[in-house]
Amino acid sequence: MKKYHAAMNRIYLLVIVVAIFTGCQKNSNTSPSSANSQVDGRVDSVLALMTLEEKIGQLTLFTSDYDVTGPTIRENYKDDIKAGKVGAIFNAFGADYTRKLQEIAVKETRLHIPLLFGYDVIHGHRTIFPIPLGESCSWDLNVMQQSARIAAEEASAEGLHWTFAPMCDIARDPRWGRMAEGAGEDTYLGSRIAEARVKGFQGEGIGALNSVLACVKHFAAYGAVQAGRDYHTTDMSDRVLREVYLPPYKAAIDAGAATVMTSFNELDGIPATGNKYLMTDILRKEWNFTGFVVTDYTSIMELLPHGIAEDTASAAALALEAGVDMDMQAGFYNDALEKLVKEGKLKEGLIDEAVRRILRKKFELGLFDDPYRYSNVEREKSTVMKKEFLDAARDGARKSIVLLKNEKQVLPLSKSIKRIAVIGPLADARREMIGSWSAAGDWTKAVTLLEGIKAAVTPSTQVLYARGCNINDDTTTYFSQAIQTAKQADVVVLAVGEAALMTGEAASRTALDLPGVQQKLVEEIQKTGKPVVVVLSNGRPLTINWINDNIPAIVETWFLGTQAGHAIADVLFGDYNPSGKLTVTFPRSVGQVPIYYSMKNTGRPMDANNKYTSKYLDESNEPLYPFGYGLSYTTFTYGDISLSSPQITQQDELKVSCKVTNTGKRAGEEVVQLYIHDLVGSVTRPVKELKNFQKIMLQPGESKEITFTLTQHDLSFYRKDMSFGVEPGKFEVYIGGDSRDLKKGIFILQ
Ligand code: GLC
User: Fold this and answer.
1) What's the predicted TM-score (pTM) here?
2) Residue numbers of the domain that contains 708
3) Under which EC number(s) is this enzyme classified (predicted)?
């Protein structure tokens, strides 16, 4: 019998080789469309050889494990791979280790179909960049595309084919820890950032040796979980879904994203993983998405506790029929699909379509031509954490920093200051610097704030250090030493914030205050009377009202990655003039949440002199810091807005201009923002909507005329009948350096 199998294997191998050979021969000089049809031909040639069990195996994704030396594979998974019951592995990385796993699939399975290797390369792979929320505050699309590009360079050099990024979830509730992973609260900005990140990951295209498949997640509207509690219910009108939450996912797909990941949440009563409206009607029929859809971690199994499926078989059937191609870690496709097909309860054609989508990506990646092409130890050694990547990480980190306050020009500090005290639980917190979802990033290589400051100052400067307290407990025993240290210094840099894993997945908070006793530490240090600069390391907006009222200088640094300490020091000592702007609103109180700039006006807009208007008894409606806000070491002024016409038809575009001047003493970058307000519509419209921005550099005294073009698409929305388009009427148009202090113009759309 063994001889029979060996002979059959050789025949199958020959058939595969022929299929591959004929495909790549024709592939070499064909146009994209015929290249696609060539790939389809090769896919079908493999599909025709597959048993039902082998087909279902391609729809199964299992995790690798870890031990102290790095990723490991469970023995039973090796058996599953050999049995052709696994098509992809995630959390496995490293040229050598992925090669070993690939050899099992290619040499020990009947059809030698290569594995796909995926991983959460969210903000860097080995060289870690700022957390995505932090990086979004750079408003620099080139920076964000480059960091994704470098992540793909490193990941693909370590055997990875696929990253589970970009996360495109609009988030307006800072209680939700996963706000840290996205691009903030705004639909327009989130869409542009999603595009940039997909282009970075996929580079010159799938199949390029330094590119990886992007994965648009978490589809859809996961950022709208009720009460900011992770995995909670989301529920909204189709209008809000399409106007606020869907555009960034669509932008990512329009940018060519190869895959999509379903979200954990339900939407309108149906969990995304079983939601045909999302996965087929919108994603495939409206958006023409042709890649494959993978679930989030065990989310097919979670259809049971959601209460939408009563057993494995019904959950698997619901997901597959909704349009989900690959089952991450639940094993429900493996367990149930074969029987469902054999009982005639599921069409094998559905499985074939899912297998095609997955095999197509494996062909496009070149894995059938050379399954080991990404698992090259020499390339890995020469690629990972090279100096140019570290330099890019430092540059991107500096640009992500937001200067929130700088009274009496406390900043920038002098490098030759006599004594500087660096105090606080985030001052020398190496692990925290690379934030959550830091993939294979080696935190031991991260530069702390203390190290960054020591490296920046002159040899004559004495740098003092005190921890002061822990991040999140009530220990105050270190206070006295911190106070003594502060008293010895000429200036205090006070590093407070959150632990890295207080944000990210399963990290919701009901309070937005500094954790533990950090606020008490700040107050004690402030009592010393020394000039204090607060440096924040956090993954969400914090209600730092007291600090804002009592501390002269505040720098928001998020979690800046491998080069954090150097980047913060570059800003503190003025080697880089901070240019970041907030992409999420900072509330004054968690009681204001959700709070975001593009709110509706309501029928009773706030009037301080009228009790019966929309406001609180115990808090202002205003945020602590608004969307788009950030200071510089220089100042900028905005001239009046000029319009190409006071009115336009529905065929016209409108030019909107404003002169921006650097009125300070040093060069600086400004993010010039353009907003509109459609005053009257068949449905109510937000009081402001970001429609464009430009990040510009101005020398001291220099002015630039900044011009934007408003298109009909910019003025369009989902009207009362849910058609997308414009309506005639009066518009306000705004230009400024944040969403609050703006110059206004008015025009009529006829
Ligand atoms: C997690 C996350 C998702 C991640 C996946 C694989 O639960 O929700 O963002 O990509 O599992 O790690």
Assistant:
1) 0.96
2) 636-749
3) 3.2.1.21
